[in-house]
């Protein structure tokens, strides 16, 4: 059972995630002249993943444009555009290439509202493909969401379905504050579903209960949702009821949904593909420990990447990235405790 | 723009011609590089090489520059610079391993100071400045050479590195390969500057613009820059004007952003053909001696391919190697997890096969 915050009504169209993102960008450009899309290769070429395909042809070179190759300047310029009243939507070609821009993000993007006492705010969206599972070269599979989640003043959204991608992206573009929007590369074309046509919104800050169950809560987001779903399906066959929660938004995090589920199941497995130490999974575990420890029947278990750089070695990439077997094992572990 | 040979192979600057042995060696290295590029495509299609960025057509830009170094110097190549790394002596087998996504491609030979190909753009430029300074502090005359593309020269790291190198008089040679494109973005959309070598002016260092399809010219200007750096004269920025005739990577479709006509003229400027014509005209090479050379290069490559094929696949726990000198307690625990996981998996696999 899926429970979307705004259940799709009316006409729908079957789309991949990348098509749904393209659709959202198209709608945002058409709805508001302030929206501008820019980044490396987003214009003529339509992005390395084609998320901006056709948008320049349709909306013009002033509103959809290629920038020089400089992430700090892409974010810095976006900040200036946002200050001056536009709605910048920047693409960072891969999340692993956000790093040159971190000074702009940490020193400025996240604190503009604060340091100007809301005289200025930055309605900027930064989209970045992230995560592994598709055999990319070095640094193309990083999951740096915890760095952003740790930065005050920015929101972090990570969809796991085409409909959510569209609905959350439109919410992000219309949000008054900066939003990081991470898109799991693995999901761009691997899933298709019915997506509402037109201006469809999914609110930022509301988790989605993907499957309901009474025994274990599996908390995940982005590229790990389908992995958790597979593990949950196997566990269900074995008679274990697994509740899979797709957080959708890391900042702000929907703790109510998580805590309510833990109150019911008493067991928590958290799945991300980021390195183990100090990842966002640790934050989720801390929230559960703080707010629901009396419900816990077993220690919280994290299934994550490892404390090593993501390996670009095809032969062993799958060791790093959590798979359904590892999640299933964690489910058994909390059940057997 | 410095040029030694015209596109038709005729000599335009007699005074810049390197000695005959050097000219032949440059040709040999360009053919090795091209052979790698051409075989690389085939191996990729056969599924025996991963996605790699081709450099065919840019051999003079890479070989002529790297050939000015010795084995004591540093080379900081980007993903595009297989040809430069091969020229300095990176073994073909290691290079194949790298583009096979094998960790064996990350083990650089102890007698070379070549870094693994850099994937994030421009980040290696400040690092080259540091390596160059360290050499000078230690009293050597070794230099550092770093590569970047026209696109990469928009990154802040590029500018900061040039400024640091100038201010600190670092023995650095910066090669800016202007190959016309940063994936789909043409140089004119990358920057309003039309002569990228002049960016050096802003940092008070020499800037040279050279025909990047002329191996004799790139070798000549790079030798000058390397000699100046060795002698304490500080850094140089060299813009090699060339063209990326191939797609951005073997998986890219350039028809989305450029026309055939954009590229067509550049075939006539091919760097390999240009030097070949010169060598034949000058009587330094005959068709027969060239055939011997090609046979030798083919044999060398096939032997290296066999060596790369013999490298074992990495084992699962290897992904945690080399994170710290001493693995942390967390890493040790994670290693045990992986080993247990895979022992259990192998056991299940074995009993399945036995059943
Ligand atoms: C910091 C960073 N940003 C973005 C990328 C993605 N990317 C890979 S190659 C490339 C274009 C590079 O163009 P250029 O510097 O001209 O070098 P070329 O590929 O033409 O050799 C881009 C944007 C990257 N690798 N690193």
Briefly characterize the structure.
The complex is a heterodimer of chains A (337) and B (355). Chain A is α/β, with parallel strands linked by helices and 337 residues long.
Describe the structure.
Residues 1-5 of chain A have low confidence and may be disordered. In chain A, strand 6 (155-157), helix 7 and strand 7 (179-184) form a beta-alpha-beta unit. Chain A has helices at 17-31, 55-59, 71-83, 102-109, 112-115, 145-149, 162-173, 224-237, 255-265, 280-292, 317-320, 324-336; strands at residues 12-16, 35-39, 64-66, 87-91, 125-130, 155-157, 179-184, 192-196, 208-211, 216-220, 242-246, 249-251, 268-271, 301-303. Chain A contains 12 helices and 14 strands. The radius of gyration of chain A is 19 Å and the shape is globular. Chain A is an alpha/beta fold. In chain A, strands 3-2-4-5-7-6-12 form a 7-stranded mixed sheet, sandwiched between helices. Chain B is of the alpha/beta class and 355 residues long. In chain B, 46% of the residues lie in helices and 9% in strands. Chain B contains 12 helices and 8 strands. Chain B has helices at residues 20-45, 59-66, 82-88, 92-99, 124-137, 156-167, 187-190, 215-230, 260-267, 271-281, 287-310, 329-354; strands at 74-76, 113-114, 144-149, 172-178, 181-182, 185-186, 207-211, 236-241. In chain B, strands 2-1-3-4-8-7 form a 6-stranded parallel sheet, with helices on both faces. Chain B has a two-stranded antiparallel ribbon with strand order 5-6. In chain B, helix 8 (215-230) links the parallel strand 7 and strand 8 (236-241). Chain B is globular. The relative contact order of chain B is 0.15. The mean pLDDT of chain B is 95. The A-B interface holds A 40-41, 43-46, 48, 66, 68-73, 96-97, 99-100, 135, 137-140, 276-277, 306-309, 311-316, 319-320, 325-326, 329 and B 50-51, 79, 100-103, 119-123, 151-152, 154-157, 182-185, 189-191, 256-257, 313-321, 323, 328, 330-331, 334, 338, 341-342, 345. Thiamine diphosphate sits between chains B (80, 119-121, 149-152, 179, 181-183, 244, 248) and A (40, 69, 71, 93, 97, 100).
């Amino acid at each position: 059972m899926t429970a979307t915050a705004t259940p799709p009504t009316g006409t729908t169209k079957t789309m991949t995630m990348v098509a749904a993102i393209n659709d959202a960008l198209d709608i945002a450009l058409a709805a508001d002249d302030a929206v501008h899309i820019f980044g490396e290769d987003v214009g003529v070429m339509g992005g390395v993943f084609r998320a901006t395909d056709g948008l320049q042809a349709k909306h013009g070179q002033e509103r959809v444009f290629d920038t020089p190759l400089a992430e700090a300047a892409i974010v810095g310029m976006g900040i200036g555009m946002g200050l001056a009243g536009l709605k910048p939507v920047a693409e960072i070609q891969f999340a692993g290439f956000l790093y040159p821009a971190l000074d702009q993000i940490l020193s400025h993007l996240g604190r503009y509202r604060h340091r100007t006492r809301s005289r200025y705010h930055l309605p900027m969206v930064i989209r970045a493909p992230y995560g592994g599972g598709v055999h990319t070269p070095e640094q193309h599979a990083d999951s740096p969401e915890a760095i952003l989640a740790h930065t005050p003043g920015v929101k972090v959204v990570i969809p796991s379905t085409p409909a959510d991608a569209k609905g959350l992206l439109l919410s992000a573009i219309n949000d008054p504050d900066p939003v990081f929007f991470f898109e799991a590369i693995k999901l761009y074309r691997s899933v298709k579903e019915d997506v509402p046509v037109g201006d469809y919104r999914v609110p930022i800050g509301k988790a989605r209960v993907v499957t309901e169950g009474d025994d274990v809560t599996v908390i995940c987001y982005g590229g790990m949702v389908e992995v958790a779903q597979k593990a949950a399906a196997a566990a269900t066959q074995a008679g274990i009821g697994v509740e899979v929660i797709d957080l959708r938004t890391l900042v702000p995090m929907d703790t109510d949904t998580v805590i309510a589920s833990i109150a019911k199941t008493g067991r928590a497995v958290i799945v991300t593909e980021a390195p183990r130490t100090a990842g966002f999974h640790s934050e989720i575990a801390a929230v559960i420990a703080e707010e629901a420890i009396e419900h816990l029947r077993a220690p919280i278990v994290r299934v994550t990447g490892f404390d090593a750089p993501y390996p670009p070695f095809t032969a062993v990439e799958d060791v790093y990235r959590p798979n359904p077997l590892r999640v299933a094992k964690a489910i058994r572990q909390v059940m057997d405790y | 723009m410095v040029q030694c040979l015209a596109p038709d192979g005729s000599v335009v600057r007699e005074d810049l011609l390197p000695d005959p042995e050097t000219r032949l060696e440059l040709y040999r290295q360009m053919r090795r590089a091209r052979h790698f590029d051409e075989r690389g495509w085939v191996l990729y299609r056969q599924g025996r090489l991963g996605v790699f960025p081709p450099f065919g057509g840019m051999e003079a830009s890479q070989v002529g520059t790297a050939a000015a170094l010795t084995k004591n110097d540093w080379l900081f190549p980007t993903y595009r610079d297989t040809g430069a790394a091969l020229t300095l002596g990176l073994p073909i087998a290691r290079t194949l391993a790298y583009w096979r996504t094998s960790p064996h491609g990350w083990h650089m030979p102890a007698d070379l100071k070549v870094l693994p190909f850099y994937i994030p753009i421009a980040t290696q430029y400040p690092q080259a400045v540091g390596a160059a300074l360290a050499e000078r502090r230690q009293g050597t005359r070794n230099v550092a050479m770093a590569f970047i593309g026209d696109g990469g020269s928009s990154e802040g790291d590029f500018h900061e590195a040039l400024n640091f190198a100038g201010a600190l008089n670092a023995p650095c040679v910066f090669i800016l390969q202007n190959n016309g494109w940063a994936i789909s973005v043409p140089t004119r959309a990358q920057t309003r500057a039309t002569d990228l070598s002049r960016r050096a002016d802003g940092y008070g260092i020499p800037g040279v613009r050279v025909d990047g399809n002329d191996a004799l010219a790139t070798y000549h200007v790079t030798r000058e820059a390397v000699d100046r750096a060795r002698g304490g004269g500080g850094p140089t920025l060299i813009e090699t004007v060339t063209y990326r005739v191939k797609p951005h990577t073997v998986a890219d479709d350039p028809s989305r952003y450029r026309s055939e006509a954009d590229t067509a003229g550049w075939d006539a400027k091919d760097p390999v053909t240009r030097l070949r014509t010169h060598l034949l005209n000058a009587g330094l090479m005959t068709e027969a001696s060239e055939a011997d050379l090609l046979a030798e290069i083919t044999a060398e490559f096939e032997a290296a391919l066999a060596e790369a094929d013999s490298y074992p696949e990495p084992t699962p726990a290897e992904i945690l190697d080399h994170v710290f000198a001493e693995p942390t307690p967390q890493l040790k625990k994670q290693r045990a997890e992986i080993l247990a996981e895979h022992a259990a998996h192998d056991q299940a696999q074995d009993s399945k096969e036995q059943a």
